[in-house]
UniProtKB/TrEMBL annotation:
It comes from Streptomyces virginiae. Residues 40-169 form the VTT domain. Its main location: membrane. PANTHER family: INNER MEMBRANE PROTEIN DEDA-RELATED, TRANSMEMBRANE PROTEIN. It is a multi-pass membrane protein. This is VTT domain-containing protein.
């Protein structure tokens, strides 16, 4: 898998693939957008990585700053698309949410957090599996204002993109091997996702005290 993705990083189309994957994974969380970002960053780092055995790298490697900007921008665009869908979802989306106790709780908690200016939940949920979908759709469904949601979406996109790019780039720089740096970085990304999922599902302090 990593070899296949690695070959894609030698093409300028990697930027379009990364952007498309990030935009769409708000609706299809199974898309490997984080893996793509990490692999592209690792390819950029491999050109300057110092290892015991020199490893040939493609002449064309992704630009780290451009990768960071594209990943952040695509994340925000995807969030806003889901946000708009949540606002206009109608009765069908209402029924889908009502059938899921988890979605209902997440949407209620999100509305309260945004109303109090505590949009840090948006940033945390960006790292959780499907958390971005729940948060973006929920913000739209609860009729939050764009001015309340957008700044937190931008911050979430920057945090997620920065973390993913840093994992791939510095992991490969430190380990000196692209495949190992990529593999361990992906593990670190999923670990952060598991922690974020735990924090999102945990009831707010007031609810925990009342219980």
């Amino acid at each position: 898998m990593f070899e296949t993705l690695g070959s894609l990083t030698a093409s300028p189309w990697i930027y379009a693939l990364v952007a498309l994957s990030i935009v769409l994974d708000v609706f299809l969380p199974v898309l490997p957008s984080g893996v793509l970002v990490i692999t592209a960053a690792a390819a950029a780092a491999a050109a300057g990585a110092a290892g015991p055995v020199p490893v040939p790298v493609p002449e064309q490697v992704p630009d780290i700053l451009l990768l960071l900007v594209i990943a952040t921008t695509a994340s925000v665009l995807g969030d806003m698309a889901a946000f708009r869908l949540g606002r206009r979802g109608g009765a069908r989306l209402d029924r889908a949410i009502a059938r899921s106790r988890r979605l209902t709780r997440a949407h209620e908690r999100l509305g309260t957090a945004l109303a109090r200016g505590g949009g840090a939940l948006v940033v945390i949920a960006r790292f959780a599996p499907a958390g971005r979908s729940v948060v973006s759709l929920g913000a739209g469904k609860t009729q939050r204002k764009v001015a309340e949601f957008l700044p937190w979406s931008v911050l979430a996109g920057m945090a997620w993109a920065g973390y993913s790019v840093a994992l791939g780039y510095f992991g490969t720089q430190w380990l000196g091997t692209q495949w190992l740096g990529t593999a361990l970085s992906v593990v670190a990304l999923f670990t952060a996702g598991a922690l974020a999922a735990f924090l999102v599902r945990r009831p707010p302090p007031a609810a925990a005290t009342a219980a």
